[in-house]
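Ticket reopened. Same input as before:
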Amino acid sequence: SASAADESEPETRADGAAPETETGVLAGDKSVSVDEPTGGLTAGLDPVLQQVEGTWIAWGDGEADFDVADERNRVAVPPDDGSYTLRRIDLSEEAVDSYYYGFSNRVLWPLCHGFTDLVENRSNDFDWYRTVNERFAEAVAENATADSTVWLQDYHFALAPRMIRESVPQSTTVAQFWHIPWPTATTFQRCPSGGQLLEGVLGNDLLGFHVDRYADNFLECVRRFLPSATVDRDRRIVSYGGHTTRVVATPMGVDAASYDQDARSASQTQLSSLFEKYDIAEDTVIGLGVDRLDYTKGIPERLAAIERFLERNPTWHGEFTFIQKATLSRTDIQAYERYGDLVRSEVERINQRFRTREWKPIVYTEDYLDSDDLCALYRRADVMVVSPLVDGMNLVTQEYIASSVDGDGTLLLSDRTGAHETLGSHAITIDPTDTDGFAGRLEAALSMPPHERKQRMNTLRNRVFDMDLDSWMETQFDWIRRVRSEIGQTGPQ
Ligand code: ADQ
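Engineering reply: fixed in the latest deploy. New output:
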């Protein structure tokens, strides 16, 4: 497996893992210690890699200044019995700035989410993107054998699959999961070096997206921009340059059982101390938003709907508080800095407008919340608001559902998320940009009869437990086995 960085700042990792504190990968004396992964995909991959005794190749912290051959860049995990190897690729500050904060997050992220006006293609960023993809591909080639499976994660590696394909044995299986949307052809047309990216991902034997729409967009882009490729849309198979790629839609899940368990063990004292910290009265009706501070997440639109709701419903003043938990992310990029400023000033303005001595409508925090606090909040929230303008999947939605162990929470879900395609029929659907409609849905959620709330939540919970992280991993590996046997049957191409 190869992976790039987490999506949030080091102190608040987006996969929900605890921050690396006293036992970081690199201890002060330059010996190596290892943290257990505690959340998200990391936690899903760890047991799989232990079982198959594989190699996990990831971007190191760049502080170590180890060269590639340094043994400290090959760490046995777990440290005592070394089931698998963690192979770190150290990137210089310039590489991180150009590859990660550059082409990955100033070009591919906005483009794949349709924010073409935010695309910033700085000179050298694509060259660095290629160089870093090459470094990962070389590391993969050093480790892959004829029966290895290589599994790449996300948009940070659009070029690596072809590089890998060309340097590993024919029978090695190369797969990738693309965690964000694939844009329409009209949008993708504006992607710098788009043709190279398509050729790159078509080095995979298997390419996974969350939902059908992204898979179909991808196939349409290949048809339009790589005319020599053969695209079988029904079977979702592409042949290009003598190589075949199968494209699948497999929506990712969360470790539902562990959210359920954490929510059940959340104590009243824990919740009370959070409410005390945020100055919220115990019996307040709670709305909740949990997001990385990212311009795709629709936070200002959500605030506008809350403002409209407060204008129209004076009886809810003093009774309803919206908690917005935001996690700082990619702050080196100006668009993120501006977005953070906008969100903070809107919160301030709305609070000034409606607050009383005892109450304010919005509690905004950028604090790190450990998973116990997060689950306690999810469980307590009466209404969860997930309102991205675009989102590949949105795992927060599933985390909320899995943590709603009392079965009485209500979910407002944007119809522009991957999550809506799998869960939308039992949530309350919102168009995040329709302020009036959104405010109306919030009113409807708050006045929904308890039996309807329970019924909807019950169905949502069944779905989220069915599609959990384990089941997603199994589906990935089932597909990998299937393409592997297909490669075996057709022989070298
Ligand atoms: P993200 O854009 O990061 O992921 P999301 O799927 O919601 O979006 O995942 C965020 C994760 O960060 C969640 O697990 C959440 O609990 C965690 N988190 C956020 N704030 C936190 C906090 N303060 N404390 C602790 N944990 C916090 C990208 C895509 C998504 C896709 C995922 C997975 O953009 O669309 O669902 O990858 O494929």
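Residues 7, 12, 14-16, 40, 179-180, 252, 290, 292, 325, 327, 368-369, 374, 391-396, 399 surround adenosine-5'-diphosphate-glucose (CB under 6 Å). Residues 469-490 form the longest helix (22 residues). Please confirm and we'll close it.
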